[in-house]
């Protein structure tokens, strides 16, 4: 009903956007379902793979919600601006929670991107830690062209990946970024032929599952916070993380 397939298989969870008839266009109901899925993940899940059914990853927000048409009973986006500000901010925060859990330190998230990744689709790919893309992948931050701002958590990871100047250029021009450029500027980790996408994501998943989960959790947390710390603070954070790991390893042996 929400246009998603959500599954858990041991340490690997999978999110499949499943509305291929509209290029996996997204709705607030999908964001709510994503947030609930993230909250309910079993503690032994270590990798989350996000992909789209069909030839596109996601064409972004369902355009019918922008032009004022209801979709499965969901409120058109522009009417949200009439709500009292506290209610509106709380609603946007709920939308964001469908994406933000993918950056939690205890999991590594991988986006398998083919075809269009536009607007909300681009931000969903950015919410993931790693992006494996096919040669036909195309990214665009379309929100400014619609008079809106990217508000699903995509702005910070975009700056972290490509730098402020490039991020500003991509958002203000809303231009397309093809797969080759995405790899060149750091948006994509790997570009592989479409028929190798699933196998490459599996190989990457297996590699990520190799190290001990505590080490991955602490390392991801260190890297996520590195840009906001001074060098001395980062050294201190490394010391504290290593102390926790050594104590945990000793406890496991005892």
Automatic annotation (TrEMBL):
PROSITE patterns: ENOYL_COA_HYDRATASE (PS00166). Pfam families: ECH_1. CDD domains: crotonase-like. InterPro entries: ClpP/crotonase-like_dom_sf (IPR029045), Ech1-like (IPR045002), Enoyl-CoA_hyd/isom_CS (IPR018376), Enoyl-CoA_hydra/iso (IPR001753). It comes from the Bacteria. PANTHER family: DELTA(3,5)-DELTA(2,4)-DIENOYL-COA ISOMERASE, MITOCHONDRIAL, ENOYL-COA HYDRATASE. Belongs to the enoyl-CoA hydratase/isomerase family. This is Enoyl-CoA hydratase/isomerase family protein. It comes from Kribbella speibonae. The lineage of its organism: Bacteria, Bacillati, Actinomycetota, Actinomycetes, Propionibacteriales.
């Amino acid at each position: 009903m929400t246009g998603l397939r959500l599954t858990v298989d041991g340490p690997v969870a999978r999110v499949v956007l499943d509305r291929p008839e509209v290029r996996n266009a997204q709705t607030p109901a999908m964001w709510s379902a994503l947030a609930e899925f993230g909250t309910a993940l079993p503690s032994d899940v270590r990798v989350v793979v996000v992909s789209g059914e069909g030839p596109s990853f996601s064409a972004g927000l369902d355009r019918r919600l922008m032009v004022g048409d209801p979709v499965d009973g969901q409120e058109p986006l522009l009417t949200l601006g009439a709500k009292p500000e506290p209610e509106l901010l709380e609603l946007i925060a709920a939308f964001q929670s469908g994406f933000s859990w993918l950056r939690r330190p205890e999991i590594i998230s991988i986006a398998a991107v083919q075809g269009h990744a536009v607007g909300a689709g681009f931000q969903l790919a950015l919410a993931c830690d790693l992006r494996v893309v096919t040669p036909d992948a195309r990214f665009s931050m379309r929100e400014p062209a619609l008079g809106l701002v990217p508000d699903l958590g995509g702005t910070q990871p975009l700056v972290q990946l490509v730098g402020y100047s490039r991020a500003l250029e991509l958002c203000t021009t809303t231009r397309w970024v093809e797969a080759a450029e995405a790899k060149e500027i750091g948006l994509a980790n790997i570009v592989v032929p479409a028929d190798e996408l699933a196998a490459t994501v599996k190989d990457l998943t297996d590699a990520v599952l190799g190290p001990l989960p505590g080490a991955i959790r602490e390392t991801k947390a260190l890297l996520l916070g590195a840009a906001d710390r001074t060098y001395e603070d980062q050294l201190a954070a490394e010391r504290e993380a290593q102390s926790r790991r050594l104590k945990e390893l000793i406890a496991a042996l005892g």
